[in-house]
């Protein structure tokens, strides 16, 4: 017999001796061998099965049913390996000696049977040693796989370090990782406590194992002495073996119950994990929305600043318009006073005309004689030529004056043109700035998408790392479970296990409280998010009224919402994948249960793996310390993010107050603009009334001139022989001519004042039209942005082509109702306004009357008495410009169609309704 057979025989004899002693102890006192109390049915700590993907080739492969191992295991008879007990548990030798003395006759037969059983035990020992060698080979494979897993763990640690460096740039999206780290920290704390407890248990196992080795050595030395006693104790050992079988069945039942409790705790923790993941995802969405709203608020703030600047510009322009309107009012008052003075002067002129009539009737005969003398004298011709020369010179001066006035009008239009060009340049600059901002926002959006993608990759890597750590923890917990089953018969272990269960209860209560707190915080965040959305919905129409570029932002928001929906779908896919992973984990748990039933048969062979597990636990503890430090840093980042969120809320409130102030300012500006329009309409009405009164005065003056001309022609028939009368009449004529020239100069001054007032009113109308266009543009953009999805609503055009002729037509178009109906239009009246046509008809009528009177005077043979006047009369400027022959009209008719537009027609303030055509 070889050395292995000897060792197997010695081990079998030692086992039999121990069984015999245990049986005697059971017979002596049932209290010492009573089964340990059943553990409470409270859920224990999480002991999930290792994942099938990571531990498929792990130690669990040792216990999978295979064809090569199942045959010899089934062929063997079941022999329970007794647990090592303390040295004080050995029964005394006195009852054994008494038992041997009582049954001396049956020893011989029992010895023979014992020898046969020893032979069978030796054969079984040899087969067990062969199976042990195979198990050792499998253990080496398992160690190699563990080394591979450790290498993968080191690579994962390096990746985790890299991801932490990258997470410093994207700290605001790591709250999901913080939550998962907190869960891992809770699980890790429980596992750390379990590791500490298992370390103490391992120390106790080492001590008990050393004691067992001492006992085995002592039993080997005493084996020869106790060989005779084994024959007598064999029958008792068989009975004790049956009792141990029953106890083992009860212990397996208790273990199955404990496994069910563990599975319940695992399911509870999995449900809690899913709920926490969902809450974390919602928190991440809320954070993204707050960031987007912060960016929108920043853009709206910039727009409000630009609108403030625009409002300031409008206020300055409105103040300028007020000053100009006040100046126009002062000038209108002066014109009114001057018109009253002219009326008084006209009354005085009427009185002087009455006196002139009386004197003219007395000296009519004298005037006729003087006219005859003047006709016969050559000096009259020279005076006429000098008068014509002075009239030509006056026409040239008036033409130059009109040119100067036109140049002045052009010079006054140049600043407006420059101002419009500067405004256009500012608009173009703002447009380029907005385009650049839009490009920057798009770049930020792309960078944010990349950050989200990297954060998702980080989360996947962390989930994989968590699954690997969870598998290692599950494997370690399986080893712990085996050690707990091995130490289940010890009373101290039962008390420590009860305390562990109480700790697990407390941990579960803490976890439940944390889950409830997380749900409450989630609800609070949801209500806060809804409140923020409501406040933003209330502020959005106000921002829409103040901005003209909100449509771009709305389109960008739509894009972001589309991306958010795509991200939600991606998260739902990830949740489905997580559900599938959970199902695979449940299936792995079922497989693990089946493996545990095989695993309980060979528990003794795994004692050597405890040392390696302790080393792995030490490494896991170091990793947990590093992860705890990372969790602390992430919590600091979370507090910073919450402070940033509070500051953003304060900024939102301040912007809402500023938007209310801007709306009030805009309403005030609109009311001021309406008041300015009313004042402008009043000024227009006053100017029209003054123009109408001026025309009436002009017609009366023309009538008076005609009467004076008629009186002169009638007084020329009366001649008196007295030279004193001639001198008196000449003096009266000169005085009358000077009075008329003074009246005409005053009338022309009034006309220049009226013309300036009209020019200013036209400029004011232009500025008001520009302001109306700008206000209409702002309103149209605000309406377009307030209803971005209703294209059917009619909107006021944002701009209109500015035409100064439209302003002048609009300012004088309503006056045509107060005048006489115009005559049928000629070729000249095609492109003229009604006011222009009316003045032209009046001037042509007066010209025709003068031509008729001069023709009648020339036909009578008497020259016009107005030629004796040394000062040009009120209508001589016009007579100088208008030709006396109708042939000029025919030439003018042929040249007119080249200048039919109003851009070549200008008013002459010194003329009586005439036109100057360039």
UniProtKB/TrEMBL annotation:
Residues 1-62, 291-318, 354-387, 775-830, 858-894 are annotated as: Disordered. The keyword Coiled coil applies. Residues 291-315 have a biased composition (Basic and acidic residues). Residues 39-52, 775-788, 864-878 have a biased composition (Polar residues). Keywords: Coiled coil. It comes from the Eukaryota. Residues 104-247, 501-563, 603-714 form a coiled coil. This is Uncharacterized protein.
